[in-house]
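WARN retry 2 of 3 for item q-0093 after timeout on previous attempt; input resubmitted unchanged.
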Amino acid sequence: MAHLLEQMAYVGETPWHGLGNALAPKQPLEVWAQQAGMNWQIQDSPVHFISDKVAHLGTINVFPEQKVLYRSDNKQALSVVSQRYKVVQPRDVLEFYRDLTDMAGYELETAGVLKGGKKFWALINIQSC
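OK item q-0093 returned
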C-alpha cells in the first residue's frame, strides 16, 4: 500500500516503508495538516454530459442525482456520488482529535493521504498518556 501513499506525517519511529515527514512530538493540528498533505478541501460540482448527435455538436445536459467530488488544490476528480453523500473534509479527520490532543494529553501518531486524496486518515496513540 506504500505505493499508493501521496503524503503522510508521523511521530516516533520511521514507518516500515520509510516514507513520510517526521514530526517532533506535540505538534499543533495545523502543522499536521500541512505535513500530512491534508491542507485542501473536497469541493463538488454537478455532473454534466454531452448528448452527441451525428454531425452536430450535441447539447450539454445535467445529471441532477449525482455530483463530482474534486480536490480544491489541484482540481483532481475524486469520485462521483449521489446528492445525499455527506462529505468529510481531510481537516475534519484531524479536528476529530483536537480535544483529545489539547486537553487529554493524547498525541497524534500518523496522518496522511492515499490514492490521490480518495482516502485519508489520522491515528492517535492512546498509550502515550
